[in-house]
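In response to reviewer comment 3 from the previous cycle, which asked for concrete evidence that the modeling workflow produces usable outputs, we include below a single protein chain processed end to end. The sequence was submitted unchanged, and the resulting structure tokens are shown without manual editing.
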Amino acid sequence: MELRGDHLDIYQLKIDKAPTMAEIRLTLTESETSDIERPGSIPWIIQGINLEDSQDGLRSDVRRLPHDATATQKAALQEKWLKLAGRITKFHEIADQMMEGIELDWGTVHVDDPRFCMAEADEQAWEVSDEDNSELIDEEIPAEDMIIWMPSSLTHELANVLGLAKLQEEELALRKGQANDCLEKI
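The workflow returned the following structure tokens.
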């Protein structure tokens, strides 16, 4: 077998691997030192991506929770909710500091896809009431449904106007690394 080793190399795939998120992070962090416009943007964007992943995990945990869940299971889930909500709140506080007064709620309002809400719309059309809707306003949003503001939340045109196009480019590069990492796991 050793005699034919070089001839069997044709079966070894020589594919260039796509850059991982860590490699892209390193490249962007090195280039960030020369760009002082928004220092700390790379770790902040990565934190947002990680928060979105945590939300996905929490959604999965909520779906797997049995209908007859024990108090321990419910308490563990509640702790995850509270921790994630705290992390998201802190993330948005950092975002407010980084954006230096730019209103961040543009493009972050959750809107249900109307294709999936037709039955609800039909039911609500005939239900017109004068009730006080303050209960709906004060309702707390579950951590897995909280909106995480990311540079990609804005349209490209609006990002250009606000001077956030560089952040969108950084996020896109990191998302490509995230996708490459996911594909590598397959």
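Residues 106-138 have pLDDT under 50 and may be disordered. We consider this sufficient to address the reviewer's concern, and the full set will be provided in the supplementary archive.
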